[in-house]
Amino acid sequence: MRTYLVTGGAGFIGSNYIHYMFKKYDNEIRIINVDKLTYAGNLENLKDVENRDNYTFVKADICDKEAIRKVFAENDIDRVVHFAAESHVDRSIKNPEVFVQTNVLGTAVMLNCAKEAWELPDGTFKEGKKFLHVSTDEVYGSLPDDDNAFFYETSPYDPHSPYSASKASSDMLVKAYMDTYKFPANITNCSNNYGPYQFPEKLIPLIINNALQGKDLPVYGDGKNVRDWLYVEDHAKGIDMVQEQGKLFETYNIGGHNEKQNIQIIHIILDTLQEMLPEGDPRKELVSEKLIKYVTDRKGHDRRYAIAPDKIKADIGWYPETCFEEGIKKTIAWFFENEEWMKNVTSGDYQKYYTDMYSNK
């Protein structure tokens, strides 16, 4: 049975990845989820799998070298999928040091602990061991408003926020370990994800939640910043395919072919909510374009991101299966079916989940 160490598995993308992997492999794999449970970590995301015999949760900080060493020492880890990161740009602008600590130092600890556990006396590594570092397209900076301009794996790094700078730094560490030690790793750089379990500080769940409550829908600047949107399950599939079929030491860009302006996203969400809400539902009256409020632009706001996933398609046959119009309907339907989850997150009650169980660990 192959054993996976997933960092940040209680977060948005990490929890979706764990669900995807159990759906695909069931009892053929074992997953150990290491998460510090910061504000973005929510164990309610994993209620459906928490009692599986082949799933283990470990509350630990990836910056805690001894805690991570212990996980490797007590388990024969075959795969590391490293999601754990501070990821919200606005928060990075207010407190950059936290992002450097988690994203840079935490990645260094993960690399060192995996290297210690997997390295043989002759400097080579145990057969079949692989480390996958999950990163972002934001490390490449900003593209011009040109439909022919895209990010490729060869694009130079040009980060503009403390968040993207910290992720770029962590990418460089992984590249250094691959070059220096021939450490068995890959890097993936993905576009903006959306889907179930996404924390409501992010654009899509924020707009869905606010619109249903008749609250303002804040839009930075002119609303014409462009992002490439990737449905989170497609991302999970891509990560699995890179780990199993990707060439070692390579970087793969995972993009959605779903470029949209932020203001377009908001209009699509409003139209989809109107379509999906049944007649007589009082929330239907609240959902309106009148809620859109333009606010002062974010500092250092990148204008456009767009990934060309040509390499991952050519090397391993991955492609994004979910168009945005389909994905947003699936996302909204999930939020309709899990309104209690959203209430717990927005109220802060989710942070009380399992507090007693892990308070003394």
Automatic annotation (TrEMBL):
Catalytic activity from the UniProt record: dTDP-alpha-D-glucose = dTDP-4-dehydro-6-deoxy-alpha-D-glucose + H2O
Domain NAD(P)-binding per the UniProt entry, residue ranges: 5-331
Transmembrane spans: none
Cofactor: NAD(+)
Keyword Transcription regulation: no
Stored SUPFAM superfamilies: NAD(P)-binding Rossmann-fold domains (SSF51735)
Family, per entry: Belongs to the NAD(P)-dependent epimerase/dehydratase family. dTDP-glucose dehydratase subfamily.
Protein name: dTDP-glucose 4,6-dehydratase
Taxonomy of the source species: Bacteria, Bacillati, Bacillota, Clostridia, Lachnospirales
